[in-house]
UniProtKB/TrEMBL annotation:
Taxonomic source organism: Caballeronia pedi
Family: Belongs to the P-Pant transferase superfamily. Gsp/Sfp/HetI/AcpT family.
Keyword Transferase set for record: yes
GO cellular component assignments: cytosol
Protein name (database record): 4'-phosphopantetheinyl transferase
Length: 233
């Protein structure tokens, strides 16, 4: 896939050597000035266009539309199927999948000005990006996100800004794990506070056994954001 084949600002994110070689990740930088009736959005089907139209704010519609269209272009490059002809469906838990034979697994996320797409032909993947706003009252969400070890690691930090960054790191990787697992944040076989991911060694997280057969790492993210990738063994 080249810049000439996709009308969005999509770039691959280099992954470390110890990440699975079959996993690929792209970042989308969202152009909020692009109108939703522009040719770039033409690959969306009628249902997707209707969903975009239901958003009350243009920014929310642009995030959804940009990431969905970029996903179609990425999957078209992976499968050789025309981007507009791809059939995207969802399972009983709402996790999207590509309804074609031998289709790759994929996952998407978006927040603020950016989105992420992860794809693999060999395993389940999950990805998450969050805008780590300094004004966000993360302690209000901590009981639903942090396991005991996570909380101990964060509370041991003496700097409030470092605690906030660590919380967002923890939050994004747990979202990515749950999305790869297929349960999402609503709960299921595992819950966000039901497993620990800290302490973090470099970009790798220490997932406890409750997270099942998954691994995860932090992704390079724009300043003011946290991002993570998770995958099944």
């Amino acid at each position: 896939m080249t810049e000439a084949t996709i009308p969005f600002d999509v770039r691959p994110i280099p992954l470390p050597a110890d990440a699975p070689g079959d996993v690929r990740v792209w970042r989308i930088d969202i152009d909020f000035a692009m109108p939703l009736d522009s040719p770039a959005y033409a690959v969306m089907n009628a249902s997707e266009r209707a969903r975009a139209a239901r958003f009350l704010r243009h920014a929310d519609a642009a995030r959804f539309g940009s990431v969905r269209c970029a996903l179609r272009y990425v999957l078209a490059a992976e499968t050789g199927i025309d981007a507009a002809s791809l059939v995207l469906d969802a399972d009983e838990r709402g996790r999207p999948f590509l309804a074609h034979p031998n289709a790759p697994d994929f996952n998407v996320s978006h927040s603020g000005d950016h989105g992420l797409i992860a794809v693999s032909l060999a395993r389940r993947v999950g990805v998450d990006i969050e805008e780590a706003r300094a004004t966000f009252h993360w302690r209000e969400l901590a009981p639903a996100v942090l396991a005991g070890i996570d909380r101990e690691e964060i509370e041991a930090m003496t700097d409030e800004a470092a605690q906030s960054r660590a919380f967002f790191d923890c939050w994004t990787v747990k979202e990515a794990v749950l999305k790869a697992h297929g349960d999402g944040i609503g709960g299921g076989a595992i819950t966000m506070s039901g497993f620990s991911v800290l302490p973090r060694a470099g970009i790798r997280y220490a997932l406890t056994r409750e997270a099942s057969a998954f691994d995860a790492l932090a992704l390079d993210a724009p300043s003011g954001y946290a991002a993570a990738l998770a995958w099944s063994y």
